[in-house]
Specification:
alpha+beta, SH3 type barrels, Glutaredoxin, six-stranded antiparallel β-sheet, 11 strands, 41% helix, 16% strand
Length: 377
C-alpha cells in the first residue's frame, strides 16, 4: 500500500542530481499508478522516494512497487505553463493562472488579489535571498516554479485542505511539504464576481484593507508559510531531512514579523516579533533548566498541545538571539543542516552534539540567551 508519509527503511542511497528520468509503477489502494520523475532516495529493500516533475514527493514501499526503469532522457521539471496546466486539472474550471518570476499562482478569487499575492511573494523571495546573501550563505535558484493556490473564500479553502492534508483548522494558509505548495484564501473577503459586473479592487484598496489591525497577523501567517516554501526550494533546508522543528519554525517566525502600520501588513525581517517576545518573557520566570535542551533534542514540544505556544515563542527567541549575537556560528550551523539527506533520522544526543559543536557549552549559552532576551523591547 502506498502512503505519502511512509518512512522507508534505513540504509539508504541518495541520488545525485539525476541526469535521467525514472519511471516508477506502483500500487496505491488497489489502483496501479505511474510516476515519471527523479529518484531522490533508494532504500536497501527497494523502497523509493521519488520527486515528480511538479515537485511532489512520493514514497513508494518495496511491497507497493511493481517496476522501476531509468531512461537516458534528462530530468526536466515542469515549466510554469506546464505546472499550471497540471494543477488546473485537479481544480474546478473557474480557476485561472497568474505567473510571476518565481511563482505560479492558481486562483479563483479576483485577478487583483492574485496579483497582490504575487507581489507579496516576490517581495518576500527577494528579501529572503538578499538576507542570506549578506550572511554569506549562497542560496540556489529554485529548481522549479513555486506554487501558491489561492481560494476565493474560507469554505472552499477548507474543502481543499481536507482533501490535501486530511484535516482542517482555523489557519489562513499552510505549506505542504509533500506537494511543495502553499495554499491560502482571499484575506480581503472579496470573492471573484462570476458575471464580471463588479469592479475589481485595485492594489491600493487591497493594501488598505490588509493594513487594518485585525489583518496584520493573518498576512504574517501567509509570509510564515511562504518562508517555509522558499527555504525548502532554495537550498537552505532539504525536504524530509531531519531538520530541527524549532529551527524551521523559528526562521519562519523571524521573517513573518507583522506590521500594523505598513502597506500589506508586513514589514520585512529581523524586527522584534511582539507577540512571540511577550509570550517568551512571560514564560521566562518559570522556564526550567531543561527548557532549551528539550527544544533541541526532539520536535515534541512544538507538536503537542500543552505548552506549544511557549515552545514556538522560545523557538523564535532562540533564532532571534543567535542571528543577533552569534550570526557567524548560526550560518555555519545552517550550512551543516542544509547538507542533511532526506529520511535520515538522528538521535537526541546527536542533535545536542551538533549544536554544541558550533555554539559551545549549552548551559553557558542558555544563561546568556535568557539574559539577553529579557533586555529586548
Amino acid at each position: 500500500m502506498f502512503r505519502p508519509f511512509a518512512i522507508l527503511v534505513l540504509l539508504l542511497t541518495f541520488a545525485s542530481e539525476a541526469l535521467a528520468v525514472d519511471t516508477v509503477t506502483f500500487e496505491n489502494d488497489g489502483v496501479e499508478m505511474q510516476i515519471r520523475g527523479r529518484v531522490v532516495v533508494e532504500a536497501q529493500d527497494g523502497g523509493l522516494l521519488v520527486m515528480d516533475r511538479a515537485g511532489k514527493l512520493w514514497t513508494v514501499t518495496a511491497k507497493a512497487k511493481k517496476s522501476h526503469t531509468t531512461d537516458e532522457l534528462p530530468f526536466k521539471p515542469f515549466t510554469q505553463d506546464e505546472i499550471g496546466r497540471e494543477i488546473l486539472k485537479e481544480l474546478p474550471k473557474r480557476f485561472q493562472v497568474h505567473k510571476t518570476a518565481h511563482y505560479v499562482i492558481i486562483y479563483d478569487t479576483s485577478r487583483g488579489y492574485a496579483r497582490w499575492c504575487g507581489t507579496l511573494l516576490e517581495r518576500l523571495y527577494g528579501t529572503f535571498s538578499n538576507f542570506w546573501k549578506k550572511k554569506k550563505f549562497d542560496l540556489k535558484e529554485p529548481e522549479m516554479p513555486m506554487v501558491a493556490v489561492v481560494f476565493a473564500d474560507k469554505a472552499t479553502f477548507h474543502r481543499y485542505m481536507e482533501a490535501d492534508i486530511g484535516r482542517t483548522s482555523s489557519i489562513v494558509g499552510y505549506y505542504n511539504l509533500i506537494n511543495n505548495r502553499v495554499a491560502m484564501y482571499d484575506l480581503t473577503g472579496v470573492q471573484k464576481e462570476r458575471d464580471g459586473s463588479k469592479r475589481e479592487r485595485t492594489r491600493a484598496e487591497i493594501n488598505k484593507i490588509l493594513a487594518r489591525p485585525e489583518a496584520g497577523i493573518t498576512v504574517a501567517t501567509i509570509v510564515h508559510e511562504a518562508t517555509h516554501q522558499i527555504a525548502f526550494n532554495c537550498g537552505l533546508q532539504t525536504r524530509l531531512a531531519d531538520v530541527p522543528f524549532w529551527l524551521s519554525e523559528g526562521i519562519a517566525m523571524y521573517f513573518e514579523t507583522p506590521s500594523l502600520g505598513s502597506s500589506g501588513g508586513w514589514r520585512g525581517i529581523g524586527k522584534v516579533n511582539p507577540s512571540r517576545l511577550s509570550r517568551f518573557q512571560k514564560y521566562a520566570p518559570v522556564r526550567g533548566p531543561d527548557s532549551l535542551p528539550s527544544l533541541l533534542r526532539t520536535d515534541k514540544r512544538l507538536q503537542q498541545s500543552e505548552g506549544v505556544l511557549e515552545a514556538y515563542a522560545e523557538s523564535w527567541a532562540l533564532v532571534y538571539y543567535l542571528l543577533k549575537k552569534r550570526p557567524k556560528e548560526f550560518v555555519a550551523y545552517m550550512k551543516m543542516l542544509s547538507e542533511k539527506k532526506p529520511l535520515m533520522q538522528e538521535t537526541e544526543e546527536e542533535r545536542i552534539e551538533q549544536f554544541e559543536e558550533i555554539f559551545g557549552d549549552l548551559r553557558r549559552l542558555d544563561a546568556d540567551f535568557a539574559k539577553q532576551m529579557q533586555r529586548v523591547k
